[in-house]
Specification:
Radius of gyration: 20 Å
CATH class of the largest domain: Alpha Beta
Shape: elongated
Number of helices: 9
Largest sheet: 5 strands, parallel
Structural class: alpha/beta
Order of helices and strands: HEHEHEHEHEHHHH
Helix content: 40-55%
Oligomer: single chain
CATH superfamily of the largest domain: P-loop containing nucleotide triphosphate hydrolases
Number of domains: 2
Number of strands: 5
CATH architecture of the largest domain: 3-Layer(aba) Sandwich
Distance between the termini: 47 Å
Strand order of the largest sheet: 2-3-4-1-5
Protein backbone atom coordinates (compact mmCIF):
# COMPACT_ATOMS: atom_id res chain seq x y z
CA UNK A 1 0.00 0.00 0.00
CA UNK A 2 1.30 3.48 -0.87
CA UNK A 3 2.17 5.68 2.12
CA UNK A 4 -0.26 8.52 2.71
CA UNK A 5 0.82 12.10 3.02
CA UNK A 6 -0.46 13.48 6.32
CA UNK A 7 -2.95 16.33 6.36
CA UNK A 8 -1.76 17.28 9.83
CA UNK A 9 1.58 18.92 10.49
CA UNK A 10 3.58 20.10 13.49
CA UNK A 11 2.23 23.46 14.64
CA UNK A 12 4.62 25.10 17.11
CA UNK A 13 2.87 27.72 19.21
CA UNK A 14 5.12 30.45 17.80
CA UNK A 15 4.48 29.55 14.12
CA UNK A 16 1.81 32.22 13.66
CA UNK A 17 1.68 35.46 11.71
CA UNK A 18 1.47 37.51 14.89
CA UNK A 19 4.71 35.91 16.10
CA UNK A 20 6.58 36.76 12.90
CA UNK A 21 8.56 40.00 12.85
CA UNK A 22 7.89 41.24 9.31
CA UNK A 23 10.51 44.01 9.30
CA UNK A 24 11.88 44.10 5.76
CA UNK A 25 9.40 41.42 4.64
CA UNK A 26 6.12 43.29 4.78
CA UNK A 27 5.38 42.51 1.12
CA UNK A 28 5.79 38.76 1.60
CA UNK A 29 3.46 38.70 4.61
CA UNK A 30 0.91 40.85 2.77
CA UNK A 31 0.99 38.46 -0.21
CA UNK A 32 0.37 35.43 2.02
CA UNK A 33 -2.47 37.15 3.86
CA UNK A 34 -3.96 38.18 0.50
CA UNK A 35 -3.78 34.53 -0.56
CA UNK A 36 -5.64 33.50 2.60
CA UNK A 37 -8.27 36.15 2.05
CA UNK A 38 -8.88 35.05 -1.55
CA UNK A 39 -9.21 31.42 -0.44
CA UNK A 40 -11.67 32.31 2.31
CA UNK A 41 -13.77 34.18 -0.28
CA UNK A 42 -13.34 31.35 -2.80
CA UNK A 43 -11.85 33.93 -5.16
CA UNK A 44 -8.38 32.44 -5.71
CA UNK A 45 -7.05 33.25 -9.19
CA UNK A 46 -4.77 30.24 -9.56
CA UNK A 47 -1.32 31.89 -9.63
CA UNK A 48 1.27 29.85 -7.65
CA UNK A 49 3.40 31.72 -5.11
CA UNK A 50 7.10 31.01 -4.60
CA UNK A 51 8.86 32.39 -1.51
CA UNK A 52 12.66 32.29 -1.71
CA UNK A 53 14.99 33.08 1.17
CA UNK A 54 18.08 31.83 3.00
CA UNK A 55 18.06 29.34 5.85
CA UNK A 56 16.80 30.89 9.06
CA UNK A 57 14.85 33.68 7.36
CA UNK A 58 11.51 32.26 8.50
CA UNK A 59 10.24 30.30 5.48
CA UNK A 60 8.96 27.34 7.49
CA UNK A 61 7.43 29.69 10.07
CA UNK A 62 5.44 31.42 7.32
CA UNK A 63 4.61 28.14 5.56
CA UNK A 64 3.10 26.64 8.71
CA UNK A 65 1.42 29.93 9.68
CA UNK A 66 -0.25 30.09 6.26
CA UNK A 67 -1.30 26.45 6.26
CA UNK A 68 -2.63 26.63 9.81
CA UNK A 69 -4.55 29.87 9.21
CA UNK A 70 -6.11 28.41 6.06
CA UNK A 71 -7.18 25.24 7.85
CA UNK A 72 -8.62 27.28 10.74
CA UNK A 73 -10.70 29.19 8.16
CA UNK A 74 -12.15 25.94 6.84
CA UNK A 75 -9.95 25.74 3.73
CA UNK A 76 -8.85 22.22 2.79
CA UNK A 77 -5.08 22.41 3.23
CA UNK A 78 -2.02 20.19 2.93
CA UNK A 79 1.51 20.99 4.07
CA UNK A 80 4.64 18.99 3.33
CA UNK A 81 8.36 19.63 3.74
CA UNK A 82 10.24 17.90 0.92
CA UNK A 83 13.16 17.11 3.23
CA UNK A 84 10.86 14.24 4.25
CA UNK A 85 10.51 13.06 0.65
CA UNK A 86 11.77 9.53 1.41
CA UNK A 87 8.68 9.00 3.57
CA UNK A 88 6.26 9.41 0.67
CA UNK A 89 5.71 8.23 -2.89
CA UNK A 90 4.99 10.09 -6.11
CA UNK A 91 1.28 9.26 -6.28
CA UNK A 92 0.71 10.44 -2.71
CA UNK A 93 2.35 13.79 -3.45
CA UNK A 94 0.37 14.39 -6.63
CA UNK A 95 -2.84 13.43 -4.77
CA UNK A 96 -2.46 16.55 -2.63
CA UNK A 97 -4.11 18.46 -5.49
CA UNK A 98 -7.42 17.41 -3.95
CA UNK A 99 -6.84 20.13 -1.33
CA UNK A 100 -7.74 23.78 -1.88
CA UNK A 101 -4.30 24.93 -0.71
CA UNK A 102 -1.08 22.95 -1.08
CA UNK A 103 2.00 24.24 0.76
CA UNK A 104 5.31 22.68 -0.25
CA UNK A 105 8.23 23.68 1.94
CA UNK A 106 11.91 23.05 1.09
CA UNK A 107 11.25 22.66 -2.62
CA UNK A 108 15.02 22.50 -3.13
CA UNK A 109 14.94 18.92 -1.86
CA UNK A 110 13.34 17.71 -5.09
CA UNK A 111 16.22 19.05 -7.22
CA UNK A 112 18.36 16.36 -8.82
CA UNK A 113 15.82 13.58 -8.13
CA UNK A 114 13.91 13.00 -11.32
CA UNK A 115 11.03 11.13 -9.65
CA UNK A 116 10.55 13.98 -7.19
CA UNK A 117 10.86 16.65 -9.88
CA UNK A 118 8.27 14.89 -12.06
CA UNK A 119 5.91 14.59 -9.08
CA UNK A 120 6.20 18.30 -8.26
CA UNK A 121 5.72 19.16 -11.94
CA UNK A 122 2.61 16.97 -12.10
CA UNK A 123 1.32 18.59 -8.92
CA UNK A 124 1.79 22.02 -10.52
CA UNK A 125 -0.31 20.92 -13.47
CA UNK A 126 -3.03 19.35 -11.33
CA UNK A 127 -3.32 22.44 -9.14
CA UNK A 128 -3.51 24.68 -12.21
CA UNK A 129 -6.12 22.50 -13.93
CA UNK A 130 -8.26 22.12 -10.80
CA UNK A 131 -7.97 25.74 -9.63
CA UNK A 132 -6.03 24.91 -6.44
CA UNK A 133 -3.70 27.32 -4.66
CA UNK A 134 -0.04 26.35 -4.55
CA UNK A 135 2.51 27.91 -2.20
CA UNK A 136 6.14 26.85 -2.53
CA UNK A 137 9.15 27.81 -0.44
CA UNK A 138 12.82 27.39 -1.33
CA UNK A 139 16.26 28.50 -0.24
CA UNK A 140 17.22 29.04 -3.91
CA UNK A 141 15.68 30.78 -6.89
CA UNK A 142 14.50 28.69 -9.86
CA UNK A 143 17.63 29.68 -11.79
CA UNK A 144 19.87 28.42 -8.96
CA UNK A 145 18.17 25.08 -8.37
CA UNK A 146 20.06 22.15 -9.96
CA UNK A 147 16.93 20.80 -11.65
CA UNK A 148 16.99 18.02 -14.22
CA UNK A 149 13.52 18.76 -15.59
CA UNK A 150 13.38 21.96 -17.71
CA UNK A 151 9.57 21.97 -17.56
CA UNK A 152 9.65 22.21 -13.76
CA UNK A 153 12.05 25.17 -13.92
CA UNK A 154 9.64 26.78 -16.35
CA UNK A 155 6.73 26.28 -13.93
CA UNK A 156 8.75 27.73 -11.05
CA UNK A 157 9.77 30.72 -13.17
CA UNK A 158 6.11 31.37 -13.94
CA UNK A 159 5.17 31.50 -10.23
CA UNK A 160 4.85 34.84 -8.46
CA UNK A 161 8.22 35.22 -6.74
CA UNK A 162 8.63 36.84 -3.32
CA UNK A 163 12.07 37.27 -1.76
CA UNK A 164 12.26 36.72 2.00
CA UNK A 165 15.05 38.69 3.64
CA UNK A 166 16.86 37.64 6.82
CA UNK A 167 15.79 39.62 9.87
CA UNK A 168 18.24 42.27 11.05
CA UNK A 169 19.93 41.50 14.34
CA UNK A 170 17.85 43.94 16.39
CA UNK A 171 14.65 42.22 15.22
CA UNK A 172 16.07 38.80 16.05
CA UNK A 173 17.03 40.05 19.50
CA UNK A 174 13.46 41.27 20.04
CA UNK A 175 12.04 37.87 19.04
CA UNK A 176 14.48 35.98 21.25
CA UNK A 177 13.57 38.22 24.19
CA UNK A 178 9.86 37.78 23.41
CA UNK A 179 10.27 33.99 23.45
CA UNK A 180 12.12 34.17 26.78
CA UNK A 181 9.43 36.34 28.38
CA UNK A 182 6.73 33.98 27.09
CA UNK A 183 8.54 31.29 29.05
CA UNK A 184 8.68 33.42 32.16
CA UNK A 185 12.20 34.85 32.23
CA UNK A 186 14.20 37.79 30.88
CA UNK A 187 17.48 37.85 29.01
CA UNK A 188 19.52 40.88 30.01
CA UNK A 189 21.77 42.61 27.50
CA UNK A 190 24.89 40.82 28.75
CA UNK A 191 23.29 37.41 28.17
CA UNK A 192 21.89 38.45 24.78
CA UNK A 193 25.28 39.80 23.68
CA UNK A 194 26.97 36.54 24.69
CA UNK A 195 24.29 34.44 22.99
CA UNK A 196 24.58 36.32 19.70
CA UNK A 197 28.38 36.14 19.77
CA UNK A 198 28.59 32.44 20.46
CA UNK A 199 25.54 30.85 18.85
CA UNK A 200 24.28 30.42 15.31
CA UNK A 201 22.21 33.48 14.44
CA UNK A 202 19.45 31.93 12.35
CA UNK A 203 16.14 32.45 14.14
CA UNK A 204 14.96 28.82 14.49
CA UNK A 205 18.26 27.88 16.17
CA UNK A 206 18.05 30.89 18.48
CA UNK A 207 14.48 30.13 19.53
CA UNK A 208 15.37 26.49 20.11
CA UNK A 209 18.25 27.64 22.31
CA UNK A 210 15.88 29.78 24.41
CA UNK A 211 13.73 26.69 24.99
CA UNK A 212 16.79 24.70 26.04
CA UNK A 213 17.93 27.47 28.38
CA UNK A 214 14.51 27.52 30.00
CA UNK A 215 14.55 23.76 30.58
CA UNK A 216 18.07 23.83 32.03
CA UNK A 217 17.30 26.82 34.24
CA UNK A 218 14.33 24.98 35.73
CA UNK A 219 16.17 21.68 36.05
CA UNK A 220 19.17 23.28 37.78
CA UNK A 221 17.13 25.82 39.73
CA UNK A 222 19.43 28.58 38.48
CA UNK A 223 18.86 32.07 37.14
CA UNK A 224 19.59 32.65 33.46
CA UNK A 225 23.10 34.07 33.40
CA UNK A 226 26.08 33.91 31.06
CA UNK A 227 27.58 30.86 32.88
CA UNK A 228 24.29 28.97 32.49
CA UNK A 229 24.00 29.86 28.80
CA UNK A 230 27.65 28.85 28.28
CA UNK A 231 26.93 25.48 29.89
CA UNK A 232 23.89 24.94 27.66
CA UNK A 233 25.90 25.79 24.55
CA UNK A 234 28.70 23.42 25.55
CA UNK A 235 26.22 20.59 26.00
CA UNK A 236 24.31 20.99 22.76
CA UNK A 237 24.50 21.93 19.05
CA UNK A 238 24.74 25.44 17.74
CA UNK A 239 28.10 26.71 19.06
CA UNK A 240 29.96 28.67 16.41
CA UNK A 241 33.18 27.20 15.12
CA UNK A 242 36.37 29.16 15.56
CA UNK A 243 36.27 29.88 11.80
CA UNK A 244 32.80 31.44 11.85
Amino acid sequence: MSPQLPLNWPTPAHARFDEFDSEGNEGVVAALQSLLESLSRQAFDGAPLLVVGPDGAGKTHLAIATASAARAAGVGTAYIALSRWSDFDVDALVALSSQDLVVIDEIEHCAGRRDAEVAVFDLFNRCRDEGRALLLLSDQSPAQLPLQLPDLRSRLNAATLHALNPLPEDARRRLVQRRARARGFDLDDTVLDFLFRRHRRDLPALLDLVDRIDRESLARQRRVTVPLVRAVLEEGPGLKSSQS
